[in-house]
Design a protein that fits this description.
Order of helices and strands: HEHHHEEHHH
Strand order of the largest sheet: 1-3-2
Largest sheet: 3 strands, antiparallel
Structural class: mainly alpha
Oligomer: single chain
Length: 113
C-alpha cells in the first residue's frame, strides 16, 4: 500500500497511471502485467493496486477526488513525513477500516477523524 500512498503525494493522480508507474518501478514483465484474475476481467496487478487504494481511502490516508482519481490526505501526508513503516500503514488501515468497511462511503466522509 505504501507505493500507492507515495504516488499520491505529488498531487491528484489517476489510479490507472499509478498502476502503470508502479509496474515500471517494479520492473514487471509484460507477462506479469497481463496475468488475469480467474474472472478474466482484470489483471492481478491492477486489482491489487485498486484494493490498496480502497483500503487507503477507508483509513482516511487518501481522498477520492473524482472517479478514478485521488490525492493524499493530510493524515496520509503526516504518515509519510514521519517515515512510518509499512506495518504501521497496514495496521492503520485495518484498525480504522474494519469497523466501517462496507458502510456507505458518503456516511464515512462525514465522520472523518
Amino acid at each position: 500500500m505504501l507505493p500507492v500512498l507515495t504516488a499520491s503525494a505529488k498531487g491528484e493522480v489517476r489510479i490507472g497511471l499509478v498502476v502503470e508507474e508502479l509496474a515500471d518501478q517494479l520492473g514487471l514483465t509484460l507477462e506479469e502485467r497481463s496475468e488475469l484474475l480467474p474472472s478474466g476481467k482484470q489483471t492481478i496487478f491492477s486489482n491489487r493496486a485498486h484494493w490498496a487504494k480502497s483500503y487507503l481511502s477507508k483509513a482516511h490516508l487518501i481522498d477520492i477526488t473524482r472517479r478514478g482519481h485521488f490525492r493524499i490526505s493530510p493524515r496520509g501526508q503526516k504518515l509519510i513525513e514521519t517515515n512510518q513503516s509499512r506495518s504501521t500503514i497496514s495496521c492503520s488501515c485495518s484498525l480504522r477500516s474494519s469497523a466501517n468497511f462496507g458502510k456507505n462511503p458518503m456516511m464515512l466522509a462525514t465522520n472523518l477523524v
